[in-house]
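Researcher: Next sequence.
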Amino acid sequence: MKKLTLLLVFISFVGNVLAQKNTFQKASLDSEIKALRKNPAQYKALKEEDRYLKQEVATHRLVLEQMRDEEARAKSRLLEQDQQIALLRQEINQLSMRLTSPSIASSAKAYFRVQIGAYRNAKLATALAENTRFFIEDHPNQMKRFLLGNFTSYWEAQKLVDKLKKEGAQAFVVGYLNNTRLANLKEMPQEYF
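Model: Next structure:
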């Protein structure tokens, strides 16, 4: 019985609060309508403002759609660039495999390599020796020469030298004739250039 009474009191209290709120809102709206009837210029200004705001909303929606379209185009460009990067990486891997292919050197009478350095420092020489893409030659004064590639064309080797020089390396082309390193490229017969 107490619970039922408590429930009824609660419902009536909530109903009164809601009724008062609705009554208050209704009264404020009625007073605004009366004020607008008395002052048509204010009503006209509100209508004008409403139309202006609707135009602003439409403009912002249009800009938003344009930005979404631009975002979609940018994402598609990024996807294309990622695909191009993947293709270029594959090409780099294929070219680097060709550079380190020992079969070219063993089958050709003359070939070229790109020397990128000669080091006496044991730690540096050991670190570079761990990279299998380098060819390593011992020099008589206890230095190790580090070379890249097996090129059958001097100009292919020179292209690699030019690229390495752009990156700041001091690389140069070295010629081999019958698997013997030539001291000077001028010793290489012209037919191999």
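Model: The CA atoms of residues 161 and 171 lie 6 Å apart. The mean pLDDT is 79.
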